[in-house]
Amino acid sequence: MILLADGGSTKVDWSLIDKGQLVKRVFTKGANPFFRTSEEIAHELKETLVPELDGIDIYSVYFYGAGCATSEKIDVVKVAIESSLGKTPINVGSDLLGAAKGLCGNQPGIACILGTGSNSCLYDGEQIVENISPLGYILGDEGSGAVLGRLFLGACLKNQFSEGVKETFLMETGLTIPEILEKVYREKLPNRFLAKLTPFIKQHLDDKSVYNLVFNNFEDFFKRNVMQYDYKSHKIYFTGSIAYHFQDVLVEVAESLGIQVEKICQSPMAGLVEYYSQGGLKSM
Questions:
Q1: Which pTM value belongs to this model?
Q2: In this structure, what CATH number is given to the domain that contains residue 60?
Q3: I need a labelling partner for 201 at 20 to 30 A (CA). Which of 54, 62, 152, 228 fits?
Q4: Domain assignment of residue 40, yes or no
């Protein structure tokens, strides 16, 4: 059987497939090697994934994950998987390549991820041929959950929204300003905390000031990323929780820029299962 993984900063979606059929699906916590060590990832896998695979013969693992863009970070994930699953052949690549394969299959296109973080690439049907560096949620990651949360908090706490938004936010979340500052500046993984604010943002899109913040951030994503590729000659695809849950705004922004979005899906996993079920094993 083949074990496929679509790994984000918040969660990893594992799918076990046999002869083109999905056998089992398991979710574990995020495994971004920029934020977690091999030991931390391995502990999570042994606690959550390994028990679900008891007695199953796995002959190949394909892990596509956030942060897996350099050999050093790829090794962090490989070591974690090997210590959990043994010496099964393990292939690790970027979540962006996984998204491109899952969204575009064997056809060229522009693949975009909008989740906790964001990324994009021009894909030729086999490999990534162009990539505008996302730069992370401080310098880049336009359109991501972390950046939406960061921008929202900054505007909210500086009273830039319509009357009542700030008070409603603090009341519904139960957060205080000192607690927010602690989570952003002192605690681990502030990007996850910021991304977790997006359900509140979505619930208040009827407020024009909140809507404009989301619209402008998505517009930044298109202008600073998508429009640097040959976007007029390629179909454009999106995956990720933010793209999926905010797709009405995302499509409106695209149309305002004269761009047509071909497809938006919450996860590329269904496409990856299909990709690896056609023509046997494939390389990363």
A1: 0.84
A2: 3.30.420.40
A3: 228
A4: yes
